[in-house]
Write a structure and sequence with these properties.
heteropentamer, A alpha/beta (about 400), B mainly alpha (about 325), C alpha+beta (about 325), D mainly alpha (about 280), A: about 400 residues, alpha/beta, 9 strands, B: about 325 residues, mainly alpha, MetI-like fold, 2 domains, 4 strands, flat, binds adenosine-5'-triphosphate, binds magnesium ion, transmembrane (chain D), transmembrane helix (chain D), cell membrane (chain D)
């Protein structure tokens, strides 16, 4: 009889693509193995997955969140060590970092996709107002001022209601330019830098300057409000993650472009957040480990990378073999990978292991800073204090 | 009841075993104990354990010490508790009085369209919190503009603010949404209680000149006091367990700046984890235990003090 | 200040007509008693007067004003319910005082009136109890007390004394009579007790199946019942009805003789009969007879008499008190 | 009941108040429904307009209904909800009767024990429950859900029903005892019919969280064959979904069945009232 | 098959002692009536016999077995409640049939018995109605019907006829008497109606404040009341009590004369008195007198008599029926 593998995932948006493209492609090549993609709402995913793993009723293939969430599962021996999986060699150590133990010895998820931060803009609006794409911080503010003065468009489509929008699309988006990407991030982890250092406070100071350019009542503006504001043509610039591309393509009635986070001064090295987001792992309790490994190897193949990245523009493959993107906007995002230095989100690795959770705190403080309820300095101090309370960097 | 009132004190003769009591209790006891109580005890037990050097170990009350001793845990906890008390107070002052009032209006005799009113007013209670959260976020959204537009209609647009995004009003706004959703519960319970008041007692009051409001206050209200007791305790329990609505409206971090964080959201965040925050079953169970003790105190107060004093009238 | 007129009151429950056109005039200060068989509509009529029941047609005129649509509270009435309808959550005292309190009566006035009423009804020991802790008779007295403390112009009593013992009943009856005199209030009263009806009423209304059979003073009804129904209903034990032709009277269909208007003799008399059963009530003796000529007869004798079943006796009707009815059951005068 | 007791002004005011609140209660729902029939742009531009021919669109419904086997989902939801309600009502009423009718040692404590269930969210016991279900081989069966919902509903049912059962006249139950009715017969033939309004209330209260629950279907019965409606439609309410047409359509669709269930139970309530209100 | 013994039954509500040690022996097939003032504990005693009330101490022995702790359902009794306690959700028919159905009686047997009972109580037209749609008297009849269809060995009736009209009351009373004879069942019956008590009872138990004052046959109680309380309680209007010394009798504290044992004369007699009030009941006339010597006196005359208030008359007691009581209010025999 056929072996059926169940894939646990939070990506319910991808259900159609799995059913129509990915699964048929795999099943065609691997008769006797059936795949069922069984997604859960993202908000419920971690909790329900943990419960199912603990009770032993989870699916064979587990979609992995990056960094600690999955590491925890591996440490609990709920995920299988995939270091030697055929196909793993297709990924660079950086790509695998999000799903590798701290000592770098074991990898337990096949990297599937990353997302890149930047800004998506309304090309029609830029053309109408005669604005060119800003390269530096100053040009960025000049552009915003111009849009604001014109009044047709809300300069920046972002709200603070959902908190994470402020942190992810704001802080993590522009931050790497100031803390110099991996350099700063590693220094922070090593305890050589502190969140109260200027490199880390500066992004907050920039964020604080955004307030006047946001729409009325941005405090209660939700993430989907922001998306709608932009796609309905009411806002000019959208601080984005690349995952928006597919949706925006289908909804926006105007031409769009993208630009990477503007650098502080002309000639500065640019940094982008190219963040590993999705991986897949093997449930240690799976009764069909062999078949599942077959599937995982296939996920690690360039073939999968091509299908996936092109069906889901904005989710970029982490495969070493470059994928040719057919979507221009996606191509624009991925094209930054060369000239700009990639880094992952600063709070994801190691630093959010304790309580208080640095990522959560960053959400709260980013929103506070934009709302003006906390000054950048105070916010930074709070974050550092929280971190100090439990994090002792290895000396 | 009366038949056994004084049995214990005086008649020394043993009464035969009343097997029917066991039979009545048994199915509920079994299902409830097996599927609910045992798993919950299993969970609450975790509050006495924690991971020490990667191994689960018995730590006694150490988790509680952390919760109340560690300034950050304590801050979060007290913040949630205070917010929860406000949340509860708003329910008691808004939801329950309005619910009682609506039930009283619905029970006005010979009123046409009662079934429609009742269904319409109960509809929000039927909705899942997903729907409620979604709709109200939209209505209160400054972008979608329904609320400002409506305030504009009555010339009060200047009153509008992005309430859900401001730390002061957010808690009140969420509480009011919750009131809107759950008003059907007091309404239904009180309605059922009002209907069980005998017609003749009301008629006697009519003849006595006790009509309208006075009739409600002096005759009906005392007779439905037990039902009001129930809705109060249900509100209390419900509010101290609430989290769904805040999760959907304000997110797991109960923003802005934790201003809408209540015990339920704190517990769920801690227990199940959130985003990068890993679920901490031990601390979660610790919070759950504290919440349980708070609620238990409230319920015991009700069961052993209030309910015992409250007179019930058999009709 | 308490006159009442009922103008062809009709009341149906669904298709079932309970009141079939009641016309009645009650003068201010009158004491009117409704009697009639169980289920004939007495309570319904009383409730219609109170405004608790919507009449299907007709008008209720109180003090000359049409009050058919006035709410009960505004009709200035007090009512004692057949089922008492006490407020279960209030003490006896508060049950009685609530109406007054609502009307804004001064505290000490309330105190005084409740005190008076509870004295009158021997309720003092129970003032602090709640209805659930009272016996049936005690509850009934509280219901009466609640009505009388309010001293309205129009009292409606629905069988107020039915659960009281004889002594208390006499006492309460006298109190109600006194109340009637002292307040000059109009009272409408439903009872099944013949003694109550005869002693209290200025006017008795005999109802049957939703219609009025006769209205008159107690002695009028006793002495000159308008028809067979009233003749049979008023007086206990019931009047004896004899087919007129059996006793050779051809001018009537039926003749009626009340048990108290039969004299018995062992020697001689009009109708020979056999004793069937004897009831000794102490003050009276009721003798049930079987006669070939007249069928079953009941005789009531004052004092104690010894008759044994199966004895043959002779019953003689008191000719001055023989009632005669025509084929339509109407009295022949 | 009497016309004389209802003045037109008072009735008018009552209607005014009730209509006003009805408006408040219905407005958001109304908003959801009208917008579910509009195209995306007009949802945003004119949220308060009813759909016109130019803005009318069924795209949301097409998306939703095209996704998954909703007939099965509905069937599952109905089975789970109705069976659970029946069990909760039966078991809960029985226990409530025992607790409210008889005095026995430990009565109060037992009452308190049964109330614990309303004090701790059952979700916290998920892992143990799931382990139990795995052990019993009930994962991905509707039975698992029914068991959990029954256990979850019982405490509240006992709490409410015992209060209402206390108002049933002792004389009445005693008359039954004299009539030779066993305690069981008194419960089933006298008390149950008399607390019908409360039973209907409990049924409705029990139904809401069951119908709307996402968690246990997700954990205990996520398979395609056992999925409930709420679980089936949750894919439209993900974090990154901005397909408002689909969301609004899914929400509108989700309102309907529970409304039907409510109407069924509240009709029971009315029947209970008209048959049992007066002695 | 229906004997009953009560052995020093006591019952308290809190500190309030309602039954103060009741000893009673009821033989199989006897008809026992409890009378006593409102609140004296009649209903409580009846409920204790039924097992609905836990007695504080004492024993209830039925058919020789101690059944103090037997649940009511197993005592083989039927009871009519003072508050009727009808099942509001069942029709009249089902109200009556429920007990039988529960006992597993065959359908047509139930049908038959319910048919018979409802015929006897004139309830046929109401069989399909619910209690809320019945008049007070109809409800009471349903309650009686419910008890009698079950035909147990021991019947307990708590004021079963108080809401019925005179005719129906007589009829139902006779039915109960017939039932008693035909079923040979033991019946215990509470009533306030003297006629009921006198005519139905084999044995009357007079209760007062939770204790038995006297037990005896109706005529025994009427003729030889054991004490002032019983003398006053049995008989209506109440016995006249006169301070013995006022009338020159020094061997007693009080003497009692029943109203029916006073004869009136305008010319001469033992006690001169002034007429205060006259009640015409048709068959009787009650005359209230005020005498300097004896205080208030009530006289009951058979038939109609014309006396006017303020007239002076002479009342003469029937010496054969004068009762004499000592300082302890006990009868002197
Ligand atoms: N639950 C109770 N708590 C306190 N006292 C009570 C309770 N029930 C009855 N009583 C008191 O006990 C006494 C006896 O009551 P019971 O009902 O037996 O009287 P009864 O003789 O039947 O009177 P009635 O003829 O008026 O029906 C009364 O004084 C009553 O007030
Ligand atoms: N709600 C109702 N629906 C249908 N019929 C009713 C209703 N209420 C009363 N009836 C019927 O109306 C008739 C009159 O009832 P009502 O209560 O007026 O009688 P009553 O004269 O007071 O009798 P009783 O002396 O027995 O109290 C009765 O036959 C009764 O069955
Ligand atoms: Mg009546
Ligand atoms: Mg009694």
């Amino acid at each position: 009889a056929d072996v059926t593998l169940t894939v646990e995932s939070w990506r319910n948006d991808d259900l159609q693509i799995w059913q129509e493209k990915i699964i048929p492609a795999f099943e065609a090549k691997n008769p006797g193995i059936k795949i069922v993609f069984s997604p859960t709402a993202p908000t419920e995913y971690n909790a329900s997955l943990n419960a199912k793993l603990d009770a032993g009723s989870a699916g064979d293939i587990i979609t992995c969140r990056p960094f600690d969430a999955s590491l925890e599962l591996f440490n609990k021996k709920q995920l299988v060590d995939l270091t030697g999986l055929p196909g793993m060699e297709n990924f660079s150590p950086v790509a695998k970092a999000a799903w590798t133990t701290d000592d770098g010895k074991s990898t337990f998820c096949v990297p599937m996709a990353s997302v890149i931060h930047g800004f998506i803009y309304n090309k029609d609006a830029f053309d109408k107002l005669g604005i060119s794409v800003p390269k530096t911080q100053d040009e960025f503010y000049a552009a915003l001022d111009k849009i604001k003065a014109d009044g047709t468009y809300i300069p920046l489509a972002m709200g603070t209601k959902d908190l994470w929008e402020a942190a992810t699309m704001g802080y993590q988006n522009i931050g790497p330019n100031y803390w110099k990407g991996e350099e700063g991030r590693e220094a922070l982890i090593a305890g050589k830098q502190k969140l109260t250092d200027p490199e880390w406070v500066k992004p907050y100071e920039e964020l604080a300057k955004w307030k006047p350019y946001l729409g009325d009542g941005f405090e209660a503006q939700t993430y989907s409000d922001s998306q709608n504001l932009f796609t309905l043509g009411r806002a000019a610039i959208y601080p984005a993650g690349s995952w928006e591309i597919a949706l925006f393509n289908s909804q926006a009635q105007f031409k769009m472009g993208a630009f990477p986070p503007p650098v502080p001064k002309t000639g500065d090295t640019g940094y982008i957040s190219d963040h590993p987001d999705i991986g897949v792992a093997l449930n240690a309790k799976s009764t069909h480990a062999e078949e599942a490994k077959k599937f995982l190897s296939w996920v690690a193949s360039p073939e999968f990378a091509d299908i996936y990245a092109n069906s889901l523009p904005g989710f970029f493959s982490l495969n070493s073999t470059p994928v040719k993107m057919s979507d221009p906007l996606a191509q624009e995002f991925v094209s930054w990978r060369g000239p700009y230095k990639s880094t992952v989100r600063s709070t994801y690795q190691i630093l959010s292991r304790g309580t208080p959770n640095l990522e959560n705190e960053t959400w709260v403080e980013s929103a506070n800073v934009i709302n003006g309820t906390n000054t950048p300095a105070v916010a930074a101090e709070k974050l550092q204090k929280g971190l100090d309370s439990w994090y002792k960097p290895a000396k | 009841m009366s038949e056994t009132d004084n049995a214990a004190d005086i008649v020394p003769i043993k009464r035969p075993v009343r097997w029917h009591i066991f039979v009545f209790m048994l199915p509920a006891l079994i299902v409830y104990s097996a599927v609910m109580v045992l798993p919950l005890i299993e969970t609450l037990r975790l509050s006495l354990y924690n991971t020490v050097d990667g191994q689960p170990a018995f730590v006694g009350l150490a988790n509680f010490k952390v919760l109340f001793g560690d300034p950050r845990w304590a801050r979060d906890f007290w913040n949630a508790l205070v917010n929860n008390l406000i949340f509860f107070a708003i329910h008691m002052c808004v939801q329950n009085p309005i619910g009682v009032a609506l039930a009283a209006l619905l029970s006005v005799p010979k009123l046409r369209g009662v079934a429609f009113y009742r269904t319409a007013m109960f509809l929000p209670t039927l909705l899942s919190f997903v729907i409620v959260g979604f709709i109200w976020k939209l209505i209160l959204s400054p972008i979608w503009g329904v609320a400002p537009w409506m305030l504009d209609l009555i010339g009060l647009k200047f009153l509008f603010a992005p309430w859900l995004g401001q730390s002061g009003p957010a808690l009140i706004a969420v509480s009011l949404i919750s009131n809107w959703q759950y008003i059907g519960i007091p309404m239904m319970l009180i309605y059922a209680a009002l209907l069980s008041i005998p017609e003749e007692v009301i008629e006697a009051a009519e003849c006595d000149g006790i009509t309208g409001w006075a009739q409600f206050w002096k005759i009906k209200l005392p007779l439905i006091l037990p039902a009001i007791g129930i809705i109060s305790i249900l509100t209390f329990v419900g509010n101290f367990n609430a989290f769904d609505l805040i999760y959907t409206v304000q997110g797991a971090l109960a923003g802005p700046d934790m201003s809408t964080d209540i015990l339920g959201t704190l517990l769920y965040r801690t227990f199940f984890g959130f985003q990068l925050q890993l679920g901490d079953r031990s601390m979660g169970a610790t919070i759950a235990t504290v919440m349980f003790l708070i609620i238990l105190a409230g319920v015991s107060l009700y069961l052993f003090v209030i309910q015992r004093r409250m007179r019930r009238y058999q009709f | 200040m308490g006159s009442l007129q009922l103008k062809s009151i009709r009341k149906s429950y669904g298709t079932h007509e309970v009141l079939k056109g009641i016309d009645l005039e009650v003068k201010d200060g009158e004491f009117v008693i409704f009697v009639g068989p169980s289920g004939c509509g007495k309570s319904t009529l009383l409730r219609s007067i109170a405004g608790l029941e919507d009449v299907t047609s007709g008008a209720v005129v109180i003090n000359g004003r049409d009050e058919t649509l006035t709410p009960p509270a505004k009709r200035g009435i007090a009512m004692v319910f057949q089922s008492y309808a006490l407020y279960p959550h209030l003490t006896v005292k508060d049950n009685m005082g609530l109406g007054l309190k609502q009307a804004g009566t001064a505290k000490d006035e309330i105190e005084k009136r409740v005190g008076k009423a509870s004295g009158m009804l021997s309720l003092e020991p129970y003032l602090a109890r709640r209805p659930a802790e009272l016996s049936g008779g005690q509850r009934q007295r509280v219901a009466i007390g609640r009505a009388i403390v309010r001293e309205p112009e129009l009292f409606l009593f629905d069988e107020p004394l039915s659960n009281l013992d004889a002594a208390l009943r006499v006492q309460t009856r006298l109190e109600i009579a006194r109340l009637h005199r002292s307040l000059k209030a109009t009272m409408i009263y439903v009872t099944h007790d013949q003694v109550e009806a005869m002693t209290l009423a200025d006017k008795i209304v005999v109802l049957n199946a939703g219609a009025i059979e006769q209205i008159g003073s107690p002695m009028e009804l006793y002495k000159r019942p308008a028809n067979v129904f009233v003749a049979g209903f008023i007086g206990s034990p019931q009047m004896n009805f004899i087919a007129a032709e059996k006793v050779g009277d051809h001018s009537a269909k039926t003749i009626g003789v009340r048990p108290e208007h039969l004299t018995l003799s062992r020697e001689q008399g009009t109708w020979a009969a056999k004793v069937v059963h004897v009831e000794h009530l102490g003050a009276d003796t009721i003798i049930y007879l079987e006669s070939d000529q007249c069928g079953l007869l009941t005789a009531r004798l004052f004092g104690e008499h010894q008759y044994e079943p199966d004895e043959i006796v002779y019953a003689t009707p008191d000719q001055a008190h023989v009632h005669r009815f025509d084929v339509d059951n109407q009295a022949i005068r | 009941m009497s016309k004389a007791r209802t003045s037109p002004i008072r009735t008018g005011l009552v209607h005014l108040a009730l209509s006003a609140y009805t408006l408040v209660a219905l407005f958001p729902v109304f908003l959801t429904i009208i917008n579910s029939f509009k195209d995306r742009a007009s949802i945003f531009r004119e949220p308060l307009m009813i759909p016109t021919p130019s803005t009318f669109s069924l795209v949301g419904y097409q998306t939703v209904l095209g996704q998954g086997d909703f007939a099965t989902y509905f069937q599952n939801s109905f089975i789970v909800t109705i069976v659970s309600i029946l069990l909760v009502l039966l078991f809960g009423a029985m226990a409530a009767f025992a607790l409210s009718e008889y005095r026995f040692r430990g009565n109060m404590l037992l009452g308190l024990y049964m109330a614990i269930g309303i004090m701790i969210p059952i979700r916290l016991g998920t892992v143990a429950i799931l382990q139990g279900m795995v052990a019993a081989g009930l994962v991905n069966t509707l039975t698992a859900l029914i068991l959990v919902y029954t256990a979850q509903g019982i405490p509240l049912a006992i709490f409410i029903l015992s209060e209402f059962m206390r108002t049933v006249s002792d004389d009445l139950k005693n008359a039954g005892r004299i009539d030779g009715l066993s305690e069981y017969a008194i419960f089933f033939r006298l008390v149950l019919p008399l607390v019908r309004p409360a039973m209907a209330t409990v049924a409705v209260f029990t139904m809401i969280p069951i119908w709307n629950d996402l968690w246990f279907p997700l954990i205990l019965a996520p398979s395609e064959a056992t999925k409930t409606v709420t679980l089936g439609s949750q894919i439209f309410i993900g974090q990154f979904v901005t397909n408002w047409n689909a969301v609004l359509a899914a929400l509108s669709l989700a309102i309907l069945p529970i409304l039907v269930l409510y109407v069924i139970f509240s009709r029971q309530l009315i029947r209970g009232i008209t048959s049992g209100a007066v002695k």
